[in-house]
Amino acid sequence: MHERHNGLRAAALVGLVAGLALGTCSTVSAALAVAAAGLVVATAAWAWWRGDARALRSMRARPVGEAEHPLLHRLVRELCRDARQPVPRLWVSPVAAPTAFAVGRCPRTASVCVTRGLLAVLDERQLRAVLAHELAHVRARDTLLGGVAAALSSAVLATAALGWLLPGADEDEEGGGPVALLLLLLTPMAALLLHLGLRREREHAADAAAVAATGDAAALVSALRVLEVGARALPLPRGAGVRSTAVLMVTDPLPRRGPAAWLSTHPPVAERVARVQRL
């Protein structure tokens, strides 16, 4: 029930992003509102149907059977049995960066992907904790909502840029004017902050669910610390597809430093560790 409540709250935030974009565009012109509606629908539909395949392809992941990775399959099967959720399809990426992520529209169509780097650096307890974290995302449907939220944020940015380029957008006419242009400037910032807040809140919720599922907070804490070090020592390969998939991963594989850190989609590992230890 708690996970369902969290999912509904996250869905409401996604809807708020879409409504914010459409409402702002309608204050500028009817044409921009129509264009925004089309872009929002198209990007949300693309994230719904094709986001998971793109994420797996960007990491060059392949499905693996139990004979090849018996420990991985056993841990996932046990966690899913205890949580009474369908067993997802398991994938392994050849990437050396230690990380994991989950994708899928719902628990019945979900996939969990781990990298060879992650399998190399985590022991069994740590691996169980990370898998429990990803399965919590699947149960709460964060795998769908996160992709849709990211796509909607991109749509908001695109429609805002289109609004600035529309002829006559800077004229003080009915439906336009300085107020509309100010909204056009502030809306992308609001959409970005909503998206970042959604992602960070979902990471904390998945951490708490992982501890509840495993009863082993220490394993999750140590895994988070290992992955934080691994992100610096073995960064993700370059590529637009890989960077867009990074938002789904268990920790931020592209950590930012200084003032840019507030743009991270993941809470700082130190903050996550402190919350887990309080559990």
SSE diagram, text form:
Elements: H1 2-28, H2 30-58, E1 62-63, H3 70-83, E2 89-93, E3 100-103, E4 111-115, H4 116-121, H5 124-139, H6 142-165, H7 178-214, H8 217-233, H9 240-245, H10 269-278
Largest sheet: 4 strands, mixed
Q: Flag low-confidence runs.
A: 167-176
Strands side by side in the biggest sheet: 1-2-4-3
Distance separating the two termini? 19 Å
What is the mean pLDDT? 79
Question: Cα-atom Rg, whole angstroms?
Answer: 20 Å
Total count of domains: 1
Strand runs, count: 4
Which secondary-structure class do the elements indicate? mainly alpha
User: Into which percentage range does the β-strand content fall?
Assistant: 5-15%
Question: SSE order in H/E notation?
Answer: HHEHEEEHHHHHHH
Helix content: 55-70%
Structural shape: globular
Can you summarize this structure?
With 279 residues, the chain is mostly helical.
Structural write-up:
Its main location: membrane. Residues 68-277 form the Peptidase M48 domain. It holds the Pfam family Peptidase_M48. By secondary structure, the protein is mostly helical. The protein has one domain (2-278). The protein has helices at 2-28, 30-58, 70-83, 116-121, 124-139, 142-165, 178-214, 217-233, 240-245, 269-278; strands at 62-63, 89-93, 100-103, 111-115. Helix 5 crosses helix 7. Residues 167-176 have low confidence and may be disordered.
